[in-house]
Design goal:
With 203 residues, the protein is α/β, with parallel strands linked by helices. It has a single domain, classed as 2-Layer Sandwich (Nucleotidyltransferase, domain 5). It contains six helices and six strands; from the N terminus they run βββαβαβααααβ. It has a six-stranded mixed beta sheet. Helix 2 links the parallel strand 4 and strand 5. The two termini are 20 Å apart.
């Protein structure tokens, strides 16, 4: 299964793809501060994420199962309410763009037989999936993430914001895999959660 983890950030957005436990793709980007109002930035971010996901899916046509995982933001006492609101908007816009992307792919014959699965994970699950601790700090996520990224990856060659975004995206991808695997255990509560959805690419 090709698992894509997406961390839509207020500053930096991280994305990774994991295939059979191996990191095969990673990228990060930040939208220009001068791009315009929040709605413009939100739409641009969502379109960029959807475009990258479509490209990665097309690069692994032999892989029948694709999972795209997003983290669900949760408000806490220490979070800035404005940033939290924008973050929620980012995640909603990205989820909608990805859903539309999959619907469009269904109209082509290039992806016949592939299945795209969507999973939302809570904020503690990526931390636990990557480090083993649901309360892991940013530096612990980054340190654990070093083991996955090759020497020439942006993770090693850019700043802290990039490393944190990519480590979070990796944790999201791994957590998504765990969440989806649990969905098929009918004794699990996850099996009854509405956030686990599957879409067939093909007719």
């Amino acid at each position: 299964m090709l698992a894509i983890g997406v961390d839509p950030g207020y500053g930096e957005t991280g994305m990774v793809a994991v295939l059979d436990g191996v990191l095969v793709r990673s990228t990060s980007f930040a939208l220009p501060a001068t791009m315009g109002p929040t709605i413009v930035r939100t739409n641009a971010l969502a379109a960029t994420v959807a475009g990258i996901c479509e490209q990665w899916i097309s690069e692994f046509p032999e892989e029948p199962d694709v999972l795209i995982a997003l983290e669900t933001p949760i408000m806490s006492r220490t979070r800035n309410t404005k940033i939290f609101g924008v973050q929620c908007g980012y995640v909603a816009a990205v989820a909608n763009a990805l859903w539309e992307m999959v619907q469009q792919l269904q109209e082509t014959d290039l992806y016949d037989g592939q299945v795209v699965k969507f999973v939302e994970v809570g904020p503690s699950k990526p931390k636990k999936a990557l480090t083993g601790k649901g309360s892991a700090k940013k530096d612990e996520m980054v340190e654990e993430g070093r083991k996955y990224f090759p020497p020439d990856a942006d993770f090693h060659n850019k700043g802290d914001a990039t490393r944190e975004a990519l480590a979070d995206a990796l944790g999201i991808a791994l957590a998504g895999l765990l969440e989806w695997s649990e969905a098929f255990d009918m004794s699990s509560e996850v099996a009854r959660k509405p956030h686990v959805r599957s879409v067939w690419l093909g007719r």
